[in-house]
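Ticket #426: bound-state structure for adenosine monophosphate.
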Amino acid sequence: MNILLIGSGGREHALAWAIAASPLTDSLYCAPGNAGIAEVAELVDLAAGDHLGIIAFCREKAIGLVVVGPEAPLVAGIVDALTAAGIKAFGPTAAAARLEGSKGFTKDLCAKAGIPQAGYERFADRSAALHHLAARSVPVVVKADGLAAGKGVTVAMTRGEAETAVEEIFAGRFGAAGAEVVIEDFLEGEEASFFALVDGATALPFGAAQDHKRVGEGDEGPNTGGMGAYSPAPVMSEAVMQRVMAEIIDPTVKAMAAAGRPYRGVLFAGLMITAEGPKLIEYNVRFGDPECQVLMMRLKDDIVTLMLASIDQTLDKMSVRWWPEAALTVVMAARGYPGEVVKGTEIKGLAEAGALEGVEIFHAGTRRDDGCILSNGGRVLNVTALGTTVAEAAARAYAAIDRIDWPEGFCRRDIGWRAIAREKKT
Ligand code: AMP
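RESOLUTION: The complex was predicted; output attached.
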């Protein structure tokens, strides 16, 4: 079949790479894509918000499946629009994408279903939120209710920080996403990402990963979209994954169906593995970026078959197999990230770096100009590798990075440190 992928980051390059390898794929298109995606798909100049344009393109090219990478078009109802036009689309409807689109909605749903999570209160009013803060202990976590491009969460160590976060949200820092605030208890433990494919009724575990959110080595400095990731995640033992499925994912899928919002697509649970067991921090309604990159490297089965089973409600008949290797990805970002960056600097050496054993280089923010690859964003490349251990995958990824000639870029040199330290101990 002909397939259209929507998005332009490293997550979408990894998805494009996996979809292009499927025996079910005839032609693969990507809107808008990037220079790396252009090597496996034909780029289409359409914005994710242009539902009518996308539907017209699907009709023109006889698209049999649309795969939506990022959350914004899902929350905006692109799957509803495509489905209504008779076009199969992988991902949740707008009603189901509320799981990412509103933190308050998700907290209430999970509280009602008895799903382990941080205790919380919701506020639509600034003074009530400040009054509540005055009476509670720190650390405390303040969240804008809606989509805030990953910037709406403040883990406040002092009451002053928490108050500033509340003031900023109600002052309109995140626009409509800040119409409401969630204030919740601080959870202590190790964070992990868990994925499941869901078809409305059945959830199929789809692997776990850990990422590094901070820009600096030793997990210091400002938060980013993610500076690297690896899979599997040692903290996600078989026993922990079974608890996550039984206590968090399955009850969510049931509750969403019961609420008339059956969830289809990939469900990404951000977890805290606490002393009492796994607790839900948040849901995302799409693959993680850069977690998707390591999952696609490890996936042995055909991603297109699995996506179609999510749409056709046949996941109960499916299983997922993985290669035994570990995968690790290192993000190369433009200097200055997560602050202001200069775009348009030239990157050389990608072919030599990508030719190393076990290495795939996914583009996150690049464009091609006159035969040259130029940076085109904050996060620019995801240098990804397989290895028999996380340590070997890391060594391969960094060997590839050492062959990339891009003076205006940087990366963390310690991606995977926790897992590598665990491997050394055993
Ligand atoms: P979120 O956007 O909800 O994933 O939050 C961003 C980050 O804030 C998470 O990855 C955690 O590191 C942290 N965080 C969010 N909620 C909590 C919580 N209740 N306790 C501790 N850390 C949290």
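RESOLUTION NOTES: DSSP finds 14 helices and 23 strands in the chain.
TICKET STATUS: resolved
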